[in-house]
């Protein structure tokens, strides 16, 4: 029997909004949010209709005390019917923990800037590719039906604060290497907030040309220079259907100096629904989830325009329009 | 001989960024900026390469003390070689003052929401169209070569905080009436910040279909719900070549409750130049102009991401790229 607390998270949508706040957001704030609050946050977003949430990261608690107890958070998130429970892992060891915890989607970042890779993950490209192969082998050893989806995330794809622009050939070579190592999918990540609509369209086209359209569905964009939603629009034009964002714009990348600011989930959902693209998410319920962040991360700035401005008078989200038409 | 203080404001560009801060921005702040500071602001933006500036509005000083002395500001701006000096007028009386002062572009707003029109301009649609005809006649009476460009601005085109959505047919009828009254151009204005990329593309297409492409070149978008630059991208896709914005995002519309926030010129110029579209504007010099606002409008929030984040490492603006290629 369906759990009445959650909407049907399997009904048709047009664009998948993948919430990364409980990982990318919490990782980048100093305050430590209690585990129970992290669970409440995830439940509240799922209750608003969010279908995929990156709930944490399997890194040593010594390095990121904010994400301690991710296994417990994953276990909680797995009780929510229809929710895809995603996690970030820095290496094969983290991936084994993620698999043991029951994560359904595992993302391994590979910074296409090797300088950034060494500073962020303390690994060369070759070492990260080797970790990817080890993760893929661990997943392949699982029974069919229990294998998490495995994504390689191409960090600093639109340029690096340490190296500047990264050559296309290097990005594509690394993407191909990740796919050859056994990733199901690769995604571009604008870690430094350097992307613009033209570079987004161009690089998606190149990447899809290299590894195939099916292997490139999502993108992780930042709003560092205010171009976040314009870049999303470019990504949609290029055919992508999954967009990462963070409630209240929490998070960013602490290893790229000057770069911060995820796309705000509330504003993203508003844009998509206004454009007639169904997200399955209720904007009002989503905005209400900010109160959990405000309560447990006191003093932390929450971004976003929609929560202040509200929806336009007479606004009809895409979901409502399509339901009426049906 | 060319004035060495200003770049060549007549060299080729791809997109015209029309700065509205000295009118739309100042109109919506409580503080009164001294006339000399307004002149310095305009000069500094022109020195950064801005080619069109709405320098003020011809309204009674009793109503808008912030814009008192616009004639003097126009006279100053007219001394800058190559700058297009634009003003807003609420009626024919204001237009006569604008013509006498030497304005080169005159914009008359017509709110497509009649409720908003009555509250904002205290005039029915019919009365505004009559004012437009009177302005056009006054312009036509001038010698050829001295006639300012005359634009009708369709306020609340993407919806009104008082009436909600406005029927397409009503918008197009009013646009046609403005053109029939003698406007050279009509533009859509998202007074309430209700636009989204789909509605922007759609309405530009409808409007160009109704009055012709040549009569629809520019757009005035707000960033009330964070979609400002995404909407600009949609407008560019639809073929427009002129975009209004305000330094520091100053301004908005005080008669539409809850609606505020122009597009930030600094972020807009960064997006365009990053996309390879020449604006003729130097981002560094432009961002430096914020100090004039900070000094003379103490406590007034200045928006924008680019001034804090800076340009990407190794950033090449479109202008530099094309100069090298040439």
Task: Characterize the structure shown.
The structure is a homodimer of 326-residue chains. With 326 residues, the first copy, chain A, is α/β, with parallel strands linked by helices. Chain A has one domain: Alpha-Beta Barrel (TIM Barrel), CATH 3.20.20.70. Chain A is built from 14 helices and eight strands. The first copy, chain A, has helices at residues 21-27, 35-47, 70-77, 92-101, 114-120, 125-140, 168-181, 197-211, 228-237, 265-274, 283-288, 290-296, 306-309, 318-325, and strands at 16-19, 52-57, 84-88, 105-111, 149-155, 185-189, 218-220, 242-245. An eight-stranded parallel barrel of chain A has the order 1-2-3-4-5-6-7-8, surrounded by nine helices. In chain A, helix 3 (70-77) links the parallel strand 2 and strand 3 (84-88). The radius of gyration of chain A is 18 Å and the shape is globular. Chain A starts with 15 loop residues before the first strand and ends with a helix.
Can you lay out the helices and strands and say which pair or pack?
The structure is a homodimer of 326-residue chains.
Chain A (H helix, E strand, L loop, with lengths): L15 E4 L1 H7 L7 H13 L4 E6 L12 H8 L6 E5 L3 H10 L3 E7 L2 H7 L4 H16 L8 E7 L12 H14 L3 E5 L7 H15 L6 E3 L7 H10 L4 E4 L19 H10 L8 H6 L1 H7 L9 H4 L8 H8 L1
Parallel strand pairs in A: 1-2, 1-8, 2-3, 3-4, 4-5, 5-6, 6-7, 7-8
Helix pairs in contact in A: 2-3, 3-4, 4-6, 6-7, 7-8, 8-9
């Amino acid at each position: 029997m369906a759990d009445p607390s959650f909407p049907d998270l399997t009904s048709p949508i047009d664009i998948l909004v993948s919430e990364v706040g409980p990982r990318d957001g919490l990782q980048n704030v100093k305050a430590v949010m209690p585990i129970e609050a992290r669970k409440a946050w995830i439940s509240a977003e799922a209750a608003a209709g969010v279908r995929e949430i990156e709930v944490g990261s399997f890194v040593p608690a010594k390095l990121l005390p904010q994400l301690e107890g991710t296994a417990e958070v994953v276990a909680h998130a797995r009780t929510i019917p229809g929710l895809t429970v995603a996690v970030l892992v820095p290496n094969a060891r983290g991936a084994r923990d993620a698999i043991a915890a029951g994560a359904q989607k595992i993302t391994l970042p590979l910074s296409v800037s090797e300088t950034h890779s060494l500073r962020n993950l303390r690994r060369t490209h070759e070492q990260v590719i080797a970790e990817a192969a080890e993760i893929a082998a661990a997943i392949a050893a699982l029974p069919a039906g229990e294998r998490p989806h495995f994504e390689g995330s191409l960090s600093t794809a639109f340029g690096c604060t340490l190296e500047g622009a990264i050559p296309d050939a290097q990005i594509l070579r690394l993407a191909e290497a990740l796919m050859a190592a056994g990733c199901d999918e690769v995604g571009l990540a604008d870690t430094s907030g350097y992307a613009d609509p033209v570079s987004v369209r161009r690089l998606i086209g190149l990447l899809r040309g290299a590894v195939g359209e099916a292997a490139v569905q999502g993108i992780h964009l930042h709003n560092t220079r205010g171009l976040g939603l314009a870049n999303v629009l470019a990504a949609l034009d290029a055919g992508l259907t999954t967009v990462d964002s963070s409630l209240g714009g929490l998070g960013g990348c602490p290893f790229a100096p000057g770069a911060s600011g995820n796309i705000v989930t509330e504003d993203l959902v508003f844009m998509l629904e206004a454009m007639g693209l169904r997200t399955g998410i209720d904007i009002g319920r989503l905005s209400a989830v900010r109160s959990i962040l405000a309560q447990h991360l006191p003093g932390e700035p929450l971004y976003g325009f929609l929560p202040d401005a509200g929806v336009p008078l007479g606004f009809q989200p895409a979901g409502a329009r399509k339901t009426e038409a049906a």
